Amino acid sequence: MQSASSEGNRLLELSDGLANIVERVGQSVVAIHGRRRIPSSGVIWRQGVVVTAAHTLRRDDGIEVTLADGRKVGAVLAGRDAGTDVAVLKLDGVELAPPESGDARGLRPGHLVLAVARGDGASTHADFGVIGSVGGPWRTWRGGQLDAFVQLDGGLHPGFSGAALADMRGQVVGICTSAFARGVGMLIPHATVERVADELLAKGRVSRGYLGVGTQQVSLPDAWIEKMKLSSRGGLLVNSIAPDGPAEAAGVLIGDVLVDIDGKACGDMSELHAAIGAVSIGKPLKIGLIRGGERVECAVMVGERPQRNACR
């Protein structure tokens, strides 16, 4: 039977270990002043490059960053991507090492993690929790592709969006965000941040295919499925069309029901986003529609999604 003192020593070792992780990771975590009142957090991702949660930046200019040593420096927004909620800032004359990176795909429900943030006044903040649920690659409701679905066991404290999430090895497996689920913290995996940061640094935006339609998922009547030999029981009802967009140019009408793209069923938003990815930009796609109870087809030239347009 273990003594009370040995149990106490183990708790002290655990406590010291957690504090050491926070201290080490915290050297690469910054506070970002890109909105009013509470700053958000960010992570030194590469030399002179900071990543954060895009939804926390409410302006493009006049952004400042507070470093771990208390220095406040100006930052230039290299680009942001609402689909994955990743934004990249560039810092001049700042030589700080990024934290050790880890792989979010190795996380399992119940794994212990530490969120490390930085508040106003250069103070380091930490939150200890567990991974709530984990899944494979998934597409956000904003159209971005994340390399893994990782949900935390609760919400994020104010200022923790953009914070580093570290595993018990002290490796940063990604950054935190509250943008994708109300009241629940999510992880933007390291691999996703890396991929999106490369594209934002190269051209300031992430390219995605664009039809210029607003849609909602609907269930198709059995009579339609049987009559037109449809492979899916769902479709996408077109409820808005962007002026001068690809869909309008192709003759798509409000009230049409989108059922397939290039012969593949398109019964929900994930299938639509997958069909019009970046590789399809500038290419014609054959769109299958139901209009007035009859099947029609049209060819749509896929465009590049405007950065500030709510239509898909």
TrEMBL record:
Pfam families: PDZ_2, Trypsin_2
Domain of life: Bacteria
Gene3D superfamilies attached to this UniProt entry: 2.30.42.10, 2.40.10.120
Protein's UniProt keywords contain Protease: yes
PROSITE patterns: PDZ
GO molecular function, one term: serine-type endopeptidase activity
Keywords for this protein: Hydrolase, Protease
Residue ranges constituting the PDZ domain according to the UniProt record: 217-293
Alphabetical GO biological process terms: proteolysis
Name under which the protein is recorded: 2-alkenal reductase
